[in-house]
Write a structure and sequence with these properties.
4 copies of one chain form a homotetramer. Chain A has 5 helices and no strands. Chain A is mainly α. Chain A has 2 domains: about 80 residues, Helix Hairpins, CATH 1.10.287; about 30 residues, no CATH class. In chain A, helix 1 crosses helix 3 and helix 2 packs antiparallel against helix 3. Chain A is globular and about 50 Å long. At the A-B interface, helix 1, helix 2, helix 3 and helix 4 of A face helix 1, helix 2, helix 3 and helix 4 of B. Chains A, B, C, D: InterPro entries: dCTP_Pyrophosphatase, DCTPP. Chains A, B, C, D: It holds the Pfam family MazG-like. Chains A, B, C, D: It comes from Salinibacillus aidingensis. Chains A, B, C, D: This is Nucleotide pyrophosphohydrolase.
Chain lengths: ~120, ~120, ~120, ~120
């Protein structure tokens, strides 16, 4: 499979197959999946504890990739349980964010939209 | 665009275009992106605070989709900054998880691999 | 020492002594301490992943106490670095929360103040 | 009340009075309190997003104190629900951490105990 052509749906199917092979769908209520997603995001962040980005990447590159992957995998599984199309919600949210952060106001500043 | 055929790379490009239109790449070091990803995962989880899954979905469905989308968007932008292929790391991590959780041992239990 | 009489300042001193014995004050900038506090709160939460409160307590009681203690320890060390009086900020915040959640409106409901 | 003499138990009582005045004990199961603690730790961390410690303190000092206080308040309320003595678990955990990080090995390094 050419990786350039992998669709989001292909990944959702790979993640849910992993889940269903283990009969884990029964544990996957949205609340516990949201907890798990938050825990994986923290495990990703742990790689940067006490260090700047460069040193973190130097020491923990492989684990950073793996924890980012786990965040993705839980996101894919949560989208399946919610029965929502990830492509659609991502593209819709990018449009909403674009309205919250109009280019002319947001360009080059890290301020929150409430402070623009 | 047929949503069934949206590739992960299409989403990465949409997210990085949003970022670059605002000249935000300068702020996007991996450490701060990992912080942001963790914050968005918490905002998702906040929808489930004090409630079970059913009541959370009833009251906060739209916000749940939006916060899940934000988690995805930061994941896409982090993968761009790390210059790593999301498809590859997700598929590799699913394989690694499959070895950590062999079907015959993990089926139907929510135990961690360290307890199997 | 009678535990009933332990002051918050006693605990701050115990935590900062632990830190200074190891010459760790140099790493303790507020941003990395806030990251660490968030990571410890996640480790606490991990004890409740996929389980209700009763089963979590049954299986993980000791670890729950230890992770809660780690959250406290980082809070104590952060208050030292910020040079802020924990007693004062806690009592002030309780007063502010009391204004946000007036008894007559907030009694018996889990709603956020924005929804009262 | 002389703030130097405020005990941890005084703070627990202030936090649980706030809770009981609003009849909120019914919502305070340990799992949802652990979620809330994690959410407050994230709100604290949000003050440091995209910024170094100095700029964060300059722009968000008051909010940093308030979110740290909220972390404390939830810790106090969780200790009450768990019926555990915060002084005891903090002092015990400091002793355990001291064994994990012996002074002669841990001095001046930010490494985890697994790497010492």
């Amino acid at each position: 499979m050419n990786k350039q052509n992998v669709t989001v749906n292909d990944l959702v199917q790979a993640a849910t197959k992993f889940r269903d092979d283990r009969d884990w769908r029964q544990f996957h209520n949205p609340k516990d999946l949201a907890i798990s997603l938050s825990l994986e995001a923290s495990e990703l962040l742990e790689n940067f504890q006490w260090k700047d980005s460069a040193k973190s990447m130097e020491e923990n590159e492989e684990n950073i990739y793996e924890e980012l992957a786990d965040v993705l995998i839980y996101s894919l599984m949560l989208s399946d349980v919610l029965d929502v199309d990830l492509n659609e919600i991502v593209l819709n949210k990018l449009e909403k964010n674009a309205r919250k952060y109009p280019v002319e106001k947001a360009r080059g500043t890290e301020k929150k939209y409430t402070e623009l």
